[in-house]
Amino acid sequence: MTTLAPSADVLADHTGRPRRVVDMPLPYEQTRLGIAFHEAGHAVLAMAYGMHVVTSEVIAWQVGPGRMRLTGNTAFNAENTPPWQFAAQAAAGEIAQVNYLMVYGLWTPERAAACDSAHDREQAIDVLAQFGYRLAHGHVPAGGKSWGMVRGMARRKVSHLWREIRTVAHAMNENTVLTGDEIAALTGLVNRPLKGDAA
Questions:
Q1: Is the pLDDT confidence value at 20 over 80?
Q2: What is the predicted pLDDT for the residue at 2?
Q3: What value does the mean pLDDT take over residues 131-137?
Q4: Distance of alpha carbon 96 from alpha carbon 178, whole angstroms
Q5: pLDDT for residue 7
Q6: Residues 170, 103: contact at Cβ < 8 Å?
Q7: Is 97 within 8 Å of 35 (Cβ atoms)?
Q8: How far apart are CA 88 and CA 90, in angstroms?
Q9: How far is it, in rounded angstroms, from Cα 4 to Cα 13?
Q10: Dihedral through CA 126, CA 71, CA 166, CA 127, nearest 10?
Q11: pTM value surpassing 0.90
Q12: What DSSP assignment string belongs to the chain?
């Protein structure tokens, strides 16, 4: 935890615009664990889909007396990842965070809405568009998929990997930052080496 706000680039989306900030109506420790579940969802699905995970972390800073703000970040290399798997990884954070609320008896409509991760969705839409794949929010584009379809893919994978996500989330909550290799050791998943890394 820090008393200093992170740099603007940490708080920005993939286009450089500030991400929407939503205050979770929960105490700090429960909110922090929820962010850890969000990032663990990204990291575990990324690794399960063969991406190289660099780090996954919870970022917390003080914004006033007794008031904290939280976000998270997962850094990975998605080179040669099938587009729909990349999109499912993007959806996994929000799904894992909402699942955390349900499993831990914290779910309310207001709290579930506060898990919204539009910046993850918009990044997936933009990245897939660069490669000629059509992903849309609110409808199924011709020859493509809707965000709802991608969320379905992610929901199945999150359910299948819930034990791994839970393990990573609790370790991240305790340690703040985990490397991809630490996540691999905790889960038994393989953190694919980057090109040029020793085998």
A1: no
A2: 55
A3: 95
A4: 17
A5: 83
A6: no
A7: yes
A8: 5
A9: 20
A10: 10
A11: yes
A12: -BSSPPPTTTTB-TTSSBPPP---SS-HHHHHHHHHHHHHHHHHHHHHTTPEEEEEEEEEEEEETTEEEEEEEEEEE-TT--HHHHHHHHHHHHHHHHHHHHHTT---HHHHHHT--HHHHHHHHHHHHHTT--EESSS--TTSEEHHHHHHHHHHHHHHTHHHHHHHHHHHHHHSEEEHHHHHHHH----PPPTTS--
Structure tokens at 92: 């996994």
Amino acid at 8: A
The residue with greater pLDDT, 106 or 13, is: 106
Residue 196 has a pLDDT of: 62
- Answer whether residue 79 shows pLDDT above 70: yes
| Strand-pair category, 177-179 with 52-64 | antiparallel
For helices 162-175 and 180-187, angle between their N-to-C axes, nearest 10 degrees? 130
Once rounded to an integer, what is the mean pLDDT over residues 37-66?
94
